[in-house]
Amino acid sequence: MNGAASHETRSQPNGTPKGSAIVRRTNRFDPNFTQHVIDTTGPKTSPRIRKVMASLIQHIHDFARENEVTVDEWMAGVEFINEAGRMSNDVRNEGQLVCDVIGLESLVDEITYKLVSEADSAPTATAILGPFWRADAPRRDMGATIVQNIPDGDHTFIQGIVKDYLTGEPIEGAELDVWHTAPNGLYEQQENQVEHNLRGRFTTGKDGRYSFYCLRPISYPIPDDGPAGKLLKLLDRHPMRPAHIHFIVSAPKYKPIVTQVFDRRDEHLANDSVFAVKDSLIVDFLPREGDPKAQFELAYDFRLATFEDAKKYSLVGPTEEKASQSTVDGNGSRNEQALNMIGAKE
Ligand SMILES: [Fe+2]
User: Fold this and answer.
1) 345 CB contacts (<8 Å, ≥6 apart)?
2) 30 CA to centre of ligand 1 in angstroms
3) Which residues contact residue 39 at a Cβ distance below 8 angstroms, ignoring those fewer than 6 apart?
4) What family does this belong to (predicted)?
5) Are residues 17 and 144 both part of a single domain?
6) DSSP SS3 for 86
7) Helix or strand or coil: residue 151?
8) What is the pTM for the complete model shown?
9) Which of 53, 56, 178, 235 is most buried, taking the most CB atoms under 10 A from its CB?
10) How far is the CA of 341 from the centre of ligand 1 (A)?
């Protein structure tokens, strides 16, 4: 077959002089252009924005050159981003979902919470927030259920202790913010469920203990009727997430953690569509005896680091000030609070 263009000698585009072979080298483009764009940044720009944007411009220009991105391809990308924006609202975050399917949220989670110490013990591992958290989940009594109007499903009792990861001491006044899907795989804001169904906040007493009833989680597909779904299809991938329950655990003076626990028996543990599974977050739901309200149970302790210890052991993450901003009730948009929670906002 003689039509295949080699890496070095591709067919000639319009306007190319006859006989001149195109050599595919990124350095055949204007060598000064990218630096010129970066240098237009003004003197009032903050050091962090200056650094991050210079890097972003450099990488995205290199990406365009290396892949010889055409105008049509770039416009397809622009339309993809615009569509994600149009689809996003108070109850759906398509931009975040697109980041999730390319592993970006999980990578940023790893970077944000990296433990560089060689401590014997470590705080509970973190996992992505995901697009379905709500800042205004109701406070519920310890031991109550978060399940409303759902007779089906495997009702489950979860209990444990929130403790200091170094001393093992229980933490009083720790708050657990928990949420998961209904048996049909949908979060309450995705359909007509009772408002705040399958989510709630619990506060520990002196013994640091928590307990509540929920459902044993099931695996579910992330919404694939938008750009994130299109991307998955382009990449020949499935949209499934392994069964999980989301938690944000916070306490005064402690660095909050955003995490998920995963059911060991789920078939999608090794191929989570958003790459969030960590070994230490895989749990065993056991049969529960003698409780008419639940068929399964789970015991799971959460280990938090104080801001002081986190600093000492180089745990990167949200500052104390940002964490406290994220736990105020009601005020500010959900996205704003989420950004504060993960320490990503300036
Ligand atoms: Fe989820």
Assistant:
1) 322, 336, 339
2) 45
3) none
4) Belongs to the intradiol ring-cleavage dioxygenase family.
5) no
6) helix
7) coil
8) 0.77
9) 178
10) 17
